[in-house]
Structure formats: C-alpha cells, structure tokens
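DM between two lab members

TW: hey, do you still have the Amidophosphoribosyltransferase entry open?
JB: yeah, one sec
JB: this one, 493 aa:
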Amino acid sequence: MSDEILTHSDQPALWTGRYYNEGVDSQVFDKLKEECGVFGVFNHTEASALAYFGLHALQHRGEESSGICTTDGEQFYVHRGMGLVKEVFDNDKILSLKGSTAIGHVRYSTAGASKLQNAQPLVFRFRGGDLAIATNGNLVNADELRRELEEAGSIFQTTSDTEVLIHLIARSKHHDPRLAVKEALQRVVGGFAFLILINDTLFVAQDSNGLRPLMIGTLDGGYVFASETCAFETVGAAYMRDVQPGELLIFDKDGMTEDRFAEMTRRSLCAMEFIYFSRPDSDVDNINLHMARKRMGMRLAMESFVDADVVTGVPDSSISAAIGFAEQTGIPYEIGLIKNRYTGRTFIQPSQELRERGVKMKLSAVRKVVEGKRVVMIDDSIVRGTTSLRIVNMLREAGAKEVHVRISSPPYMNPCFYGIDTPSREELIASSKTVEEIRQAIQADSLHFLSKQGLIEAIGRSAGEYNRGMCLGCFDNDYPTPVEDAEQAGCGC
Ligand code: SF4
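TW: and the structure you got?
JB:
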C-alpha cells in the first residue's frame, strides 16, 4: 500500500513514467475510466468483512484507492489507502473495523486528483456527531456550490465533489440529520449514488434521474447496498430491489424508512453500464449484462454483416457481444486475443516503444486462430482510436488477412458529466471524424458502429420512457440535466 500520489496520464500519453498500476486497463486500452463503486452493510455482525468482499467484487469500478468506515454505534473506525482492495486491507485491518454497519468505496479519479486525502469514505466530525460518506458519480453544480460555501466560511479538506454535500449537511439549519440530509440532497444536481453514515444511521440516496446504479440486498436479517449485483453474489446476499431515482432510504434501530428528497425527473440510467462498465454477471433492472451485450452483438451483426472466417472480441468487456455476433452470423467465435492478467506493478518509461510493449504485455493475438483469416474484431467502444489501431495492427502482425472492426455501441462523441472520466470532446475521435475517417485512422478493412436504436432495443428495458429510461448523452449530446454549469466533466468521487 502506498500513499504516494499516483498520477495517471495526461492525455494522450498513456503513462506518466511514474509507478503505474498495470491493473488499470483503461490506461493501457484507452478505455473510459469507470467511475467508482460503493458497498454498504447495515445490521450484520461481520460488516467489515462483508464490505471487504463486496469491494473486491466491485474492484473493476475503481483501482486507485479503497476504504471502509464502520461504526459500532459508539464511534467510527476507518481505514483507507491508495491501491487495490487486497493491497489496502489485511486481516488485522478488517478485524480492527468494528461494528455492524459499514460503508466502503473503490475509486478512480480524474487526473491530478488521485491522492489519499480524496480516498473515500470521507470522514468528518460536525456538531451533529460523526459523518462518513461514500459516493459514486459527479455533481454538475459542485463548483458553484463550493464557491458559495467557501464564501460563507467553509474550509474544504479535499478536492472531491462529495465534500460539498458534507458541508451542506453540516451547515443545515436542521438539527435532525434526516432533514439536514434531505435538504442537502435537494441542492445538488448530477448523477450520484450516496451512502452516508451519520452516527449510527445510514442514509442511501440516488439522484433524481437514476443515472448511477445502486441496489439493495438482504443478508441474515440485515441489508447490503452495492453499485452492482455481482457484489451480492459474492457475499451471499439476496437482491431486493434497485434504489429508485430521487429516493432517500434511512436505516436505523427502527429498520428501513422509505422517503424521497426529489420526484423522479427523466429516468436516465447510464447506458455505458450496459455497454462496458458493469460486470457481465451483474443484473441491472433484472437485465443480465452478459445477455444484454450478447443481444447488442446480435443486433450489430444484423446491421453490419460482413463475410469473414472468424469472430473475436477484445477481452474482457467485448466477449459477450462477440459471442452474440458469431451466433447471429454463424461465423465461428474464437479467442483471437488473450489478455494477460498477471503483469503486476511495473515501472514504465514514457517512451513510445515501451507504450507499445505495454499493450503487448496486456494483450496478445493468437496467431494460430487469426493467421490467413478474415477476422471480425468486436469492441465495445472507440474513445481516441489509439487502442483500436494497435489491436488492428496486432492482428495483422499475427497474420490476419482482413480485419473488420465492429463496435457494439454508437460513436462516443461527447463527454460525460455524471461520473465517467472522459477525455475532452476534441480528443474523442468520433467527435470530429466520420466513420470512414475513423476506419482509415485505425487501418481497418471495414468499420461499423451499432445504431442508437439498435442499442436501446438490444438492451431491452421496458418501452414507454424516454430512451427507455437511459442516458445516452455521450452518444447523442442529449443530457438528462442541464450541464452548462458543469465546469468539469468526469468523476467527482
Ligand atoms: S453521458 Fe454517457 S457515460 Fe455519462 S451517464 Fe450518460 S450514458 Fe453514461
């Protein structure tokens, strides 16, 4: 574990030349960075151990820092650090986190903000007692609120958006924490899922558009909360339901109280959860992610058939779509690309040659599968295009005769303001290039993206809501909230 500042790359460089966590695929593969993951426990004797295992299951959502805060009703116990869950915690640390209530967090961050003081849960003392918070998402009006609070005398300890909510709670005229939390939530705009612990009461809230996922499960008479259902499987909890947009759930000695801080506005769950972020064994609204991605691959095949010898997917997030594409076309699916999972931490100089080698450390083509073949390569998205170019070249170097690229989402053209760390619009290749120009840039024989309608129908959420209850802002520039005040896109965790 290290509390050193682990700065990630400034685009478009892949590495800064500092210590780099090889597990961060988003850096090697030019992927969008997932936002964060939260996991909570209420009323379970093994709260800290459950939080540890739950965070493990959510590790793909954030690899830079992890933390757990528990309470035994008397005091808070907290441990946070830079690194993976397994690096930050050991048995003794878990045992030292006492009590039956826990909130935990895994985090990615925007460049420059990756430091221990921003690792969550954030813990504070205020006139109402102890307060801890773990969040996933981003507040669109955080900068404006921060300025207002600073002018009123607040002193911020972190650069995290989340601290804005803490100051709003602490400065509330209400002494009842339920009213203070509700009032604070009514002032923030954006995409968020919050777990807030005030003394021995746990507050669970989701933004009024339902942008960031948050689910409730039950276990041995207690409750668990997670960004994804895969964490419930890991700890043996039963899924109960999704938290609803604008909902505020309160857990205390009287059990669960259902309340709201806002009416649901336009329900807009992030479509990228279905495309890329969530694990394939997770379900969202009872839709399994592997099955949804498979349907995206099938629809992509219907929209952009190409005669080929073999279909392969970029591991891991594109495998399901590749299986669907193969099933629909009858072209055999093969493992044509292999991901090396055991690269560990490495010091990498920021030279072009070593960047290329870095990609090869993480990914290799299976020569015997692709040699002399017409290959369809399925990927879930193209961000800057640099990775696609490398993978196309890798397949050609391994002997592929043709490389046809199929993307199981529409062109990613716009930044996200709700917790996904995206490059600026100018750096998104699809924001300025046509599909044909992108094809030329990545040197593919052909290129097709899944249509927006195809995506929506393949995911299969119930009809009747705008975009079937999903946000597609990064594809169509149609955001569910005003974003003009957002000074910074990305992740505010
Ligand atoms: S803009 Fe894109 S990444 Fe951001 S919440 Fe909407 S769909 Fe998800």
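TW: got it. The CA atoms of residues 357 and 363 lie 10 Å apart. The pocket of iron/sulfur cluster is lined by residues 191, 211, 270-272, 416, 418, 420, 471-474 (CB under 6 Å).
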